Amino acid sequence: MQYSIIIKSLKYFLLFLSISIFTILIIKSITQKSPNQGSLITFESEELSSTTQVLKKPLFMGLDKKQQPFRISAQKATRFTTSDNIFNLDKPNGEIETNSEKFYIYGNTGVFNNSNQTLLINGDVEFTNKNSIKFETSEAKFDFKKQILTGNESVVGRKNDSIIKSEGFKIINKENKVIFFGKSYLTLNK
Fold it and tell me: How far apart are CA 39 and CA 65, in angstroms?
């Protein structure tokens, strides 16, 4: 007889426990559906939901019209779902090799369009050949296929000990031309 009392009480206890768990689950699901969550930590954001790829230290390589190689690297590249061939770059570095020498471009941020092979670079932009030529500006666009570097922001150029300041510039590598726009100031040193 004592055995049946234990069984009956266990049966009622388990029934009460299952009803309690079911009630807690219903209450929890209702509170999660409400828009005002009291949670301070969330793992979803609009930026992350639209991100397709985040690459650490990527390297993009290609050839220009003259079949000369170019390279673009960065600390980080982010590709969003809205554009397949466009990468947002942190600390981008570009390198293009001509028949006679290599040229380098650096900056804080950039956007690389892989389909038309252009690099728009912003923030402390520096274009140099590491020997004698150095241009500094805040924004520049480099077309790797055509080997043309352009900028509409003020630029300071140095070669040996000479300095040129201008409101804009265009460097055409295939023609070995540097064109300065707007007011330009040239200081020649021996």
Answer: 55
Of the candidates 178, 101, 114, 123, the residue with the CA atom closest to the CA atom of residue 144: 114
Maximum Cα interatomic distance, the chain, rounded to a whole number of Å: 115
Residue of 162, 149, 153 lying closest to 190 (CA atoms): 162
Q: What CATH fold (topology level) applies to the domain 46-187?
A: lipopolysaccharide transport protein A fold (2.60.450)
Q: How many CB atoms lie within 10 A of CB 23?
A: 10
Which tokens hold the place of 114?
Answer: 């892989």
Give CA 135 to chain center in angstroms. 23
pLDDT in tens, 133-183: 888 999 999 887 787 888 888 899 888 888 889 988 888 776 677 888 888
Q: How far lies 166's CA from each of 84, 153, 180, in Å? A: 36, 8, 6
What's the DSSP call for residue 86?
A: E
Find tokens 């030529």 and name the residue. 133
* pLDDT (tens digit per residue) in 25-36: 888 888 776 555
The vertex-130 CA angle with 168 and 64, nearest 5°, equals 70
Half-sphere exposure of 31 (CA within 13 A, CB side): 9
The structural domains of the chain, with segments of one domain joined by +, span: 1-39, 46-187
